[in-house]
Design goal:
Rossmann fold, five-stranded parallel sheet, 5 strands, alpha/beta, globular, about 20% strand, about 190 residues, about 40% helix
Length: about 190
């Protein structure tokens, strides 16, 4: 039986660097005992969280949109991959709306549905000083997933790529993404 991996692509670009990286991960995963469930947020109707706290009162989100199917995919997954380019020191607006809606899992009844899962972060970025430029984002993801009981297995930052398809000029990044896809089953089973 194959293991479930959820990929959330938060890039607004069609055929952009993030999509290329995600597709290389998927290519690498083929035949390796995982089922990939990909959601391109640009193709989904996900409303902003309105702070109604229905999720904390009723353990259900009060907004009816495509997040309902993504919640189901999260619940079934063992590993989540969140892919978003770095936009102005953070994730894209698409990814931020998705992340805000994860507050549903802060309810004690729902937390058990996500706690213990593994996560990988993928971040293409124009900046070359990856360590410095990613500090805020690293802290953001660590705090988010710590609150939800999700273990971040790894974070990949692909520096120096901005223009559409520029990642194709970085064979190391392409190879690293494909290799990550090949290792997904091991990451699920062993955490490495």
């Amino acid at each position: 039986m194959n293991r479930n991996v959820l990929i959330i692509n938060g890039s607004a670009r069609i055929n952009g660097n993030t999509e290329i990286i995600v597709n290389k991960i998927i290519d690498g995963s083929k035949g390796n005992g995982v089922d990939i469930n990909l959601y391109d947020l640009k193709n989904k109707n996900i409303s902003d969280c309105i702070g109604c706290y229905n999720c904390m009162k009723e353990s259900q989100c009060g907004i009816q949109d495509d997040m309902a199917e993504i919640y189901d995919a999260i619940n079934k997954s063992e590993l989540m991959i969140l892919a978003s380019p770095l936009y102005w020191c953070g994730v894209t607006a698409l990814m931020k709306a998705f992340i805000d809606r994860l507050f549903l899992y802060y309810h004690p009844q729902n937390k058990k549905l996500i706690a213990g899962k593994k996560a990988i972060i993928i971040t293409p970025m124009n900046q070359k000083d990856v360590e410095h430029e990613s500090e805020v984002l690293v802290e953001f993801y660590k705090r988010l997933f710590n609150c939800l009981g999700v273990n971040i297995v790894d974070m990949f930052f692909y520096g120096g790529i901005m223009e559409k398809t520029k990642v194709m000029e970085k064979p190391k990044y392409i190879e690293q993404s494909y290799s990550l896809g090949k290792r997904l089953i091991g990451i699920i089973e062993n955490g490495a």
